[in-house]
Amino acid sequence: MSRRSALLQAAVLQAALAYVRAGWPIVPGAMPKAEARPRVRVLSGGRSVSVACCCGQEDCWSPAAHPLGPDWRHQHVTTEASARFWWDRHHPPLPNIVLCCGETFDVWSVSAAVGSYALDILTNGIGTPVTPVAVTPVRRWHFFTAPEGDHPALPAPHGLDVVRLGAGQFVPAPPSTRGPAGRDRWLIPHRHRWLPTGQRVAAALILAAEHLTVGHCPRGDKH
Known about the structure:
By secondary structure, this protein is α+β, with helices and mostly antiparallel strands.
């Protein structure tokens, strides 16, 4: 194994352990596979790239960014021993890491343009972190908030690119890889168990999406 591969595997293991220590449930995720067929094209960094998923499904809607097993809802990894079982291995490939929504956190998924604008609203332009934010290689931003169950305080209006992911749903976790598309990464890392309620975050996301939809905001995707 090359030094770079060893460092990447160590980073994945440390990330898995950090999620478990924070009380965030995770499951092993699907991996990109160079020789797999068929391939799915995704947009990454303004270009279209081909990503093959180890699941081999022709209609894989989220290549290398979904749980590895079909019974994942009942197989959450919540202990360091379990995390080491899955991610402390000497030979690649390691499974990606998938975060399970609804129990410890909800996730609000938006486009990069909406996320960038909303973050300015939430921080008043001074860069004070308000909630963990992860960025995917396919230009989605994920805002993490406290779980709200089946009835969120501020549901997203229909027609806006603001999606709340709760119980029974999932998101890929940094530093998971999508192969040629790149890796998921933290823009604002998770450092504490405390998360804000979804109402304030959702309000900013909805406001940003509304402005971008009607053309009031001249920004584009700036990240």
